[in-house]
Amino acid sequence: MNTTAELQVPDHQFFETLRQAPHRLLMLDYDGTLSPFVHDRFQAFPYPGVTDLLSEIINRDKSRLVIVTGRPLQEIIPLLNMSPLPEIWGSHGWEHLHHDGTIEIYPMSIPVKNAMDEAREKISQKVLLARLDIKPGSLAVHWRGLPEADENEIKQTALEIWGTYDAKEGLMLKAFDGGLELRAPGRDKGTATRHLLEESPSQVFATYLGDDLTDEDAFAALGDRGEGILVRTEFRPTQAKWWLHPPEELLDFLRKWRDCCQK
Ligand SMILES: [Mg+2]
């Protein structure tokens, strides 16, 4: 764990290793990593220039590029607005949009599903639907952009109702930037990362870029097969090896990645 704000941007050696790697895997979180944190989460579009660079990297056909996000696919697809779409793992690893367009949704166990249905039913009676996110494998309340009094009210309500479900059937109540989430056990961004690594040849050079606490599962999953990059304006303790300040350093990183992938 890196606990001091001394992490650097990926160095010359990083890109040299990337250039020479026979296989490359670039995994990217979305919110806070490729897009700025804005009040209306449905307006969280990528930083200018990001999707062009992602498309260029995909077109060079030298990297497997994957978006790994907590958002459900139905939310992330219009925000990314890319054609063709990249491969996406949505809803913290519960949904997988393959490169050929097929979608795979992983099922929850019956007891977990029943507990999640009940928790959804109870919160729906207390929190406005616009503040509620119902997705495969998790439920979330959002207070991004709300005045502090409203934020506290939603937070309190969610803690009261979902607090009783925390640890029931393995469910987990987790905070994220701007909300609280009740998650089914068994899958997270680390699961998606491990899945991708298992599918990759042994000499793959893997990188994961993320900003939030949920990305730490992915950083940990990389082990010695890849390097984590924290993308964030303010430092926080992390298992990532490198640190980028968005958007300039992120854009610079993507440009260098693209340039390391000559046809
Ligand atoms: Mg994020």
Task: Explain what the structure shows.
This protein is an alpha/beta fold and 263 residues long. It has 2 domains: 24-34 and 43-102 and 195-259, HAD superfamily/HAD-like (Rossmann fold, 3-Layer(aba) Sandwich); 110-183, Alpha-Beta Plaits (2-Layer Sandwich), CATH 3.30.70. It has 8 helices and 12 strands. The chain has helices at residues 12-20, 50-60, 73-80, 110-124, 148-163, 189-199, 215-222, 248-259; strands at residues 23-28, 64-68, 87-90, 95-97, 103-105, 132-135, 138-142, 172-176, 179-183, 204-210, 226-231, 242-244. The strands form 2 sheets. The chain has an 8-stranded mixed sheet, with helices on both faces. Helix 3 links the parallel strand 2 and strand 3 (87-90). It is globular. The two termini are 37 Å apart. The mean pLDDT is 94. Bound molecules: magnesium ion. Magnesium ion (MG) binds at residues 29, 31-33, 210-212.
Q: What's the CATH class label of the largest domain?
A: Alpha Beta
Q: What amount of the residues lies in strands?
A: 15-25%
Number of domains: 2
How many strand units? 12
Q: Tell me what the CATH architecture of the largest domain is.
A: 3-Layer(aba) Sandwich
Continuous helix count: 8
Bound small molecules, by name, code or SMILES, are:
magnesium ion
Let me know the CATH homologous superfamily of the largest domain.
HAD superfamily/HAD-like
Largest sheet descriptor: 8 strands, mixed
SSE string: HEHEHEEEHEEHEEHEHEEH
Q: How far apart, in Å, are the first and last alpha carbons?
A: 37 Å
Helix content: 25-40%
Strand order of the largest sheet: 5-4-3-2-1-10-11-12
Which blocks of ≥5 consecutive residues have pLDDT under 50? none
Classify the fold: give the CATH topology of the largest domain.
Rossmann fold
Q: In terms of structural class, how would the helical and strand content be classed?
A: alpha/beta
Rg, rounded, reads 18 Å
- Average the pLDDT over all residues and give the rounded result: 94
